[in-house]
From TrEMBL:
Keywords: Cell membrane, Membrane, Transmembrane, Transmembrane helix, Transport. Residues 97-306 form the ABC transmembrane type-1 domain. This is ABC transporter permease subunit. InterPro entries: BPD_transp_1_N, MetI-like, MetI-like_sf. It comes from Paracoccus shanxieyensis.
Length: 315
């Protein structure tokens, strides 16, 4: 129990540090946010309007007071209001977050379906043609930038073959078929690189497990080959795969910016890009805080799973 409390406390401290750094980095950059917002259409803004906007946004208060109010708002689930249209940042984040999570979940599932079987087959015959070919494909997939890969998929499947739409979004409640069709290309773009990582980790982990004594014992007892591979070898080789996969998913929440931009998918990353372009600091802060909380929470979950399955971690 003490180990669990310590890990939760460490995660909360990390989240507090992230919130503090985001607040300071935004408020200590040169320029007045109110003046920058009012001068986006060109020209010098009216000083009276600048003061009114600063009063409305609470920017005229001392920095320490702004920090405390910002921290209280986050603890209460209030990420503030957009400086551009006054809408609730929390509401917009909750509206867009499921879209990004859906994209990541689809990509993650696809990468597991490709990466784990390929890694297992490659580990069983590490010098075979399949293993060499899969390693070459995985290396190529990891080396191609995601925006290049997305563009190539659009050219091939949308423009040349005409099988899939180039991008966009349709609510699932209105048109489930089109929604799933629009999900294929962006999910595949993410899954290709992620499946290469899953393949490499699965292959390496399986090759470490297969020569162990308990595998040889199972084979000596006449256990069928498929059962030895799946129930004994793969089961013991999955922990590193799960760990790396979970950490990669956490990073993908922040790394879908280019994919959502290329495919015009209105998720959390697209919201972040729009906030940066409009210099909408509450939006930028809110998205970064949510992404950081998700990533830290995912790390905590992985640590808890490790602690449950391996008592040595709790020491």
């Amino acid at each position: 129990m003490g180990w669990f409390v310590r890990r939760v406390a460490q995660s909360l401290i990390m989240l507090w540090v992230v919130v503090s750094l985001v607040f300071l980095s935004i408020h200590l950059v040169p320029g007045d946010p109110a003046e920058l917002l009012l001068s986006q259409d060109g020209g010098s803004p009216d000083p009276l309007m600048v003061n009114m906007l600063r009063e409305q946004l609470g920017l005229n208060r001392p920095l320490a007071e702004q920090y405390v109010l910002n921290l209280k708002g986050i603890l209460n689930g209030d990420l503030g209001s957009s400086m551009v249209d006054g809408s609730s940042v929390s509401a917009e984040v909750m509206r867009r977050l499921p879209r990004t999570l859906e994209l990541i979940a689809a990509a993650g599932l696809l990468s597991l379906l490709i990466g784990i079987p390929a890694g297992v087959l490659s580990a069983l015959r590490p010098k075979g043609r399949f293993s060499r070919g899969a390693a070459l494909v995985a290396g190529t997939a990891q080396s191609v930038p995601v925006f290049v890969l997305g563009t190539l998929l659009v050219i091939l499947f949308a423009q040349v073959l005409g099988w899939l739409p180039a991008g966009g979004f349709a609510p699932f409640s209105r048109d489930p078929g089109r929604h799933l069709t629009l999900l294929i290309l962006p999910a595949a773009t993410i899954a290709i690189g992620l499946s290469a990582i899953v393949f490499r980790i699965t292959r390496a982990s399986m090759m470490d497990v297969l020569p162990l004594d308990f595998i040889r014992t199972a084979r000596a007892k006449g256990v069928p080959h498929r059962r030895v591979v799946i129930r004994h070898a793969l089961r013991n080789a999955l922990m590193p795969v799960i760990t790396v996969f979970a950490l990669q998913l956490g990073g993908l929440l922040a790394g879908t910016v280019l994919v959502e931009t290329v495919f015009n998918w209105p998720g959390l990353s697209a919201m972040l890009v729009a906030g940066v372009n409009a210099r909408d600091y509450p939006v930028v802060t809110g998205v970064i805080v949510v992404v950081s909380a998700f990533y830290i929470g995912l790390n905590l979950l992985v640590d808890i799973i490790y602690g449950i399955t391996d008592p040595r971690v709790r020491k």
